Amino acid sequence: MEALVASAVGVMTAAGIFLILRRRTFPVILGLSLITYAVNVFLFATGRLALDAPAVLNKYKDVPYTDPLPQALVLTAIVISFGMTAVIVMIALSAYLSSKDDHIDMRPNDSVDAAGEDA
Amino acid sequence: MNHWIIAPIVLPAILAPFIIMVLRYHLDLQRIFSVAGVVGLLGIALTITAQASGGDIQVYELGNWPAPFGIVLVLDRMSAMMVLLTALLALPIVLYAIGSGWDDRGKHFHALFHFQLMGVCGAFLTGDAFNLFVFFEVLLIASYGLMTHGGGSVRLKAGVQYVTYNLLGSTLFLFALGTIYAVTGTLNMADLAVRVAEIPPEDTALLRVGAVLLLLVFCIKAAVLPLHFWLPASYANAPLPVAALFAIMTKVGAYSILRVYTLAFGPEVAATEGLVGEWLQPAALVTLAVGAIGILGSKHIARMAAFCAITSMGTLLIAISLFSEVATAAALYYIFHSTLATALLFLVADLVMERRGGAIAPSKPMPQTGLISALFFVGAIAMAGMPPLSGFIGKLLVLDASRGVPDATAVWAVILIGSFVTIVGLARAGSLIFWKSHDTQAVPLSEPETDEPTPPATAPEPHPGLAFTSVFGAVLGLVLLTLFAGPALEYSRKTAEQLFTPDNYISAVLGGEE
């Protein structure tokens, strides 16, 4: 199972980095989402992987439990990354609509082109 | 428990939603409450600084959960000093934003401003690594809104780039925290320090990875080369009063490096021995060099101010990377100075841009040239580190602290030549902008890189008096820092001493356990 989770994190991170390097807003946002998925799974694994174990201690009998703290961390991370994705979609949309260009690298001729179209 | 500690977070956290929900349509009331909030924050900051200056480390346990399990806020000399700096910086900037009418060019300026202050103060006060991440996010979320305040296609494109870069940084932060948690099983900084010291050196490969990842994250925030690429485009295209506020954000990165790497991953800890100094010092030297060259090469005053921010971070991180008590005292003094100086330059750049555009080229004269050029002159002297102002004292302290370290020659050479190049760059910009302004046959303004979006049809009536007063406020801060260099340095020395005896911090936080 460790190999499966580790390779899932690795593949998602690699795909995310590949997409971010495409330098256009849509693939970049997809890539960011993939990387945040990867980091969420990774955070889960930091508490060690335990199957079928509750996240609370049992004081009546000695049963295996899984570390609850990473789950709380993941929840925070999911909320933040979800909100951030929404924010970047909105900013990217308005940037695209106002400049008719969805490159995220600020090439000097971009702004000149955009100004030319507006004029 | 001393409830003053959480006040710098609670006050903006209450004020910002209040401004959004109740005062949404009343700009005048927003302005009044915003300024009152910043003044209140300044009062709180002075109070907690007075409390911390005695040398006690105070701990605030959120929800009264004991330290390694609950989240703690920790007030020591350094965090108090940084909160005070935040409040001192915020006051002239919010007045400037009101005076120049910037807060009226988009919505929710004041609310975002206070959310940003909340994030910055929280990052300075927290004693928990994951909580540090959360406050980083709070200040970043607010900064995304402030960065794109006022709109315009170039600014929005710069905003997309800025958000993307910082989202990647946040993801890296999570990877770092996950790795550190996996090894040590804790995220409380004091507990982390204890656990890291206990790990035998042969088992620390993963921990070293985590520590390096964390350093990378802080270096992204602090704009250390080669992770500085986001800064010039973002700061130069942000509304410049906002860029002036962002001067504290790079310092958050520097603060985090100081905090985490003196406390948990210090040079004396076997697990992470020599990790920071080896990597950080060359990077900081190159940062300073590239920043100085950038100042010399900028064609736009906002970009030039952004590169000034990079040089000041370079000098600061050189001092931090020496990791000695004397150098840290110099770094703390320089943090105070460089934040105010960077903010001053950004505000002056905004005064210039509002009147004649930001291109560093001859153009028609602008109103109030004399006053603005005098302010620019003061800002340039402070930034370059020339004698009368605090920049000189700061750089002198850094140079003095680096005497006798192995790479002293390199440090001295880079700082001195970097300062010289900065002086030349600023003198070139100043003479082109202010002295040649009567050169009327010169070409008309063209700003290919950062064309200012056309102001809205109902352009607000600016209050130049207030704008100028607030810029003079920043100048006054620098002058006071120069005049009271003795007490300020004494405080920095005590702060550095506190930082380099992390046992007090650890026992203050984990004290309840014993």
Brief write-up:
The complex is a heterodimer of chains A (119) and B (514). Chain A is mainly α and 119 residues long.
Q: How would you write the strand order of the largest sheet of chain B?
A: 1-2
Beta-strand residue percentage of chain A: under 5%
Q: Could you tell me how far the N terminus lies from the C terminus of chain A, measured between alpha carbons in angstroms?
A: 59 Å
Order of helices and strands of chain A: HHHH
What does this protein look like?
Chain A is mostly helical and about 120 residues long. Chain A has a single domain, classed as Helix Hairpins. Chain A has 4 helices and no strands. The longest helix of chain A has about 30 residues. In chain A, about 30% of the residues are buried. Chain B is an all-alpha fold and about 525 residues long. In chain B, α3 runs antiparallel to α4 and α12 packs antiparallel against α13. In chain B, about 60% of the residues are buried. Chain B has a domain of about 210 residues. Chain B has 19 helices and 2 strands. At the A-B interface, α2, α3 and α4 of A face α5 and α6 of B.
List the helices and strands and how they pair.
The complex is a heterodimer of chains A (119) and B (514).
Chain A (H helix, E strand, L loop, with lengths): L1 H19 L4 H22 L21 H32 L8 H11 L1
Helix pairs in contact in A: 1-2, 2-3
Chain B lengths: L6 H15 L5 H26 L5 E4 L10 E4 L1 H23 L9 H17 L3 H19 L5 H32 L4 H10 L6 H18 L7 H8 L2 H24 L11 H23 L3 H21 L3 H32 L12 H16 L5 H12 L6 H26 L30 H20 L1 H15 L2 H9 L4
Antiparallel strand pairs in B: 1-2
Helix pairs in contact in B: 1-2, 1-4, 2-3, 3-4, 3-10, 3-13, 3-17, 4-5, 5-6, 5-10, 6-8, 6-9, 7-19, 8-10, 9-10, 9-12, 10-12, 10-13, 11-12, 11-16, 12-13, 12-16, 13-14, 13-15, 13-17, 13-18, 14-16, 14-17
